[in-house]
Design a protein that fits this description.
The protein is built from 28 helices and five strands. By secondary structure, the chain is mainly alpha-helical. Helix 8 runs parallel beside helix 10.
Length: 562
Amino acid sequence: MSEVAKRSLVRLTLSAVLSLSSSFPLALYAQSSNRLFGTASQTGTAAPKLKPEQERGLRLLKTAETESGGLQPTMRAFVLWRASSAYTKVNPKHAEKLSRDAFVATQGIEDSPENDNCAAPGSSGDIKSWIQQNVLYDMVHKDQLSEVEKRLPQATASVRNQITAELVRYYESKKDLAHAEALLSTLADFDSYPFDIAASLVKAFGAEHSADRVSIFNEALNNFEQHATGTSLGGNDIGSFIEQTWNDVPSGLVLEAIDKVLEAARVRNSPSHYSMSSAKGSVVLNSDYAMRLFQLLPILQELDKDKADALLREQTDVASQLKSHPKGMQSVHSDNTIFSYGVTDSGSGIDDAAAKQQTEAQMQEQVEAVLKQADADPTGALAKALTLPVHGLSELSSPRAHALLRIARKAAAKRPSVSKSALDDFSTIQDQLTPQEMTGIDELPELYLKMGDTDGAKKALDILVRAAAKIYEHDTDPDDPNKAFKGSWPSTDLWRKAVEQGAKISPMLPEEIIAGLQDGDISSFEKVVFAAALIGGSPTDTSILVADCRKNGASFRVSSSR
């Protein structure tokens, strides 16, 4: 954030928050309440009766709305967007207005340079696009299509494409397949073609619409050929598209597509390693080509067995993997599949990376086995979880911490004593965890509350607050600070979770958390979160971008309210 943005940020002090709750003029509040909720004469229905904490939350939000006018565009858009979600339950109309205001505010956000790994236009860290996409996505699913059409030309290029893809999904859900297909065709040259949506549309057309199926299949294949050099493997790519649609189009077309995908992977010849792991097993492969073979050979064996067998004779490592997993990706995929990817500089590096990936996959199998046991024998599973290492090889997750939290969640309802033991065991290692390994700890207070242990929930909340402070030190590391928008910092997000969880225990706890924050920007964000909690909490589908951008790269994830 620029120094100008910092200086221009208008902050609510905690004393102002508290004074608002006690000294706000009653008559003035009645007037503002009528504007916010509508009166009986205006709406034909009685205005909802508010609880004292909701009234207090609304006062805080109104102040935040007013003061947002003095913020820089990024801050203004962010605050208005967060405030709009807070109003959703009590005043949907005002929520929609603030959402539109947030979209307008994004127009003043300057685009970052293309080489900015934190916020380049269209990148995961592009806050301008993130807010616009969320606003328009909500409009689509509220059937506000005229409003979407009005706003879409004002959105960034990436948002226009993403929302158009969402409109394709929307019209498919409404059985307006012709409209959906026409919109999809406008994305034919888009470098992030929505292969998953295209696959769904192919399958939505019945056998009597074979021409439409073929047309969409060809469009997807042509897009892949245009952008093959920049294509990476993933859950939404040409390979998964073929996996889903090969039974719905002529076999000759599928064989042509498989040939082109395999040839592109062979030419690319990237020194990559891939691993997938789930409760069904694990796979490690050492090139794009090997991974594509593993994915597509099961289909090729159905359509051209001789050619498939010839390829298997050339690729013995893939043949070995397919013996254990004859359906390829489908044999490994589950709801808890872990997929990782890496690039190395030499053959030996690939071998080393593959060995590391194999070890990680084996560890994941152990964790999944423990969690599976927890369904029938939580006590035994807990004992095994304590034998898992605190730190994994990837430095992104802790096998023991992950297992303990999952066991606590599984046992909370029927075996609270086991759940509490798992949480207590977690508390003994939480100080050893790195910021990256702390993913998931935001559910600690909620788990204690499910067991009726308020004191435990308060202690867990303290763990969250201390963890957020630890992550904040990492975000503000003077040698390599997090350059992402501060509203999306991991520490900001964990404090958000702490405020939300604390409000479920006592309103005093969020006040204490906010009072302890030394960063005025983050304090302002958390006050909006607190106001939302007082009103009734943010909708469960409200999501926040969490970004960590450093000298050597950036990582992004989406975090939802609990």
